[in-house]
Amino acid sequence: MSAIKIEHITKTYDKGSVTALNDISLEVAKGELFGLIGPDGAGKSSLFRILTTLLIADKGTATVDGFDVVKDYKQIRGCVGYMPGKFSLYQDLTVEENLTFFASLFGTTISENYDLIKDIYVQIEPFKKRRAGKLSGGMKQKLALCCALIHKPTVLFLDEPTTGVDAVSRKEFWEMLKRLKEQQITIMVSTPYMDEANLCERIALIQNGELLSVDTPEKIVASYPQQLYAVKADNMHKILNDVRDYENLQSVYAFGEYLHTTFKTDEAQSEPKLIAYLQQKNNSGIEIRKIEPTIEDSFIRLMTEASTS
Ligand SMILES: Nc1ncnc2c1ncn2[C@@H]1O[C@H](COP(=O)(O)OP(=O)(O)OP(=O)(O)O)[C@@H](O)[C@H]1O
């Protein structure tokens, strides 16, 4: 049995004028660390809210741990942990009070499930008398995770847990997730950060309420169909405009300090031909080399394909 099974879920807002999720189907295995990757407004929060029984879909069905999200909402509320993107903590309560409050909601105590949160809680324990509103972003995130875990859930939903958190805390957070996974907890986590996609076992790329791809990050990258090139010159603004006018161009976009480019027809002569063209356009300091795509390149390609089809 899958830990999460989503079948043809559609959700609209504003009397159907906004489609947040369009016919989404997806399965997550027990104990899997699954990532939902997509930009703002892609539909990630809507899906989390449906799976945690806070929102009802217009169409389709979903189960969490075998329980139906509509009929069995009470059982689901007891077995899932949910860390929403915003406002999951009571800012005026202290660290300890927040945790005690969440434990009492589920009829448990901090000491009963202390083993599960111990690794995370020891990091915030020195601040246990501090109000949640006065904690740093990384500390708030750790406390929110402890609160989502305090009743020992079997499935954990984390909506953009690392947004607005510094790089060190982000890294620590992903290490904590790996340890939770070792305890057989199924984790569905959303993030707008592409680098975090590689830390998941499988990911779904989502845009405008549609799933563009569902697979392991490695397989998504391996399915990139073309040779990708990194291109650079002294004047990046000029070279971008020139490459856009190149007749054999398939795609080009800025990526860090390079342009990433593919050609309509790729051949051994592709690199020298582009160099000759760019030289003829008076570009200097031209650099071009073959590169391996990243998950972000794959996402850009899938998004472009989806928006032009
Ligand atoms: N209560 C609502 N009323 C109307 N439209 C909404 C509502 N909630 C979400 N939407 C719209 O539905 C779409 C999906 O939003 P959702 O919040 O699910 O996406 P998201 O990927 O979580 O993005 P974000 O990180 O910005 O919340 C967006 O176009 C959003 O504007």
From TrEMBL:
InterPro entries referenced in this protein's UniProt entry, alphabetically:
AAA+_ATPase, ABC_transporter-like_ATP-bd, ABC_transporter-like_CS, ABC_transporter_ATP-binding
Q: PANTHER family attached here?
A: ABC TRANSPORTER ATP-BINDING PROTEIN (PTHR42711), ABC TRANSPORTER ATP-BINDING PROTEIN NATA (PTHR42711:SF5)
What PROSITE patterns is this protein classified in? ABC_TRANSPORTER_1 (PS00211), ABC_TRANSPORTER_2 (PS50893)
Q: Which residues form the ABC transporter domain?
A: 4-233
Protein name per its UniProtKB record: ABC transporter ATP-binding protein
Q: Which Pfam families match?
A: ABC_tran
Q: Does the keyword Transport apply?
A: yes
Q: What is the lineage of its organism?
A: Bacteria, Pseudomonadati, Bacteroidota, Chitinophagia, Chitinophagales
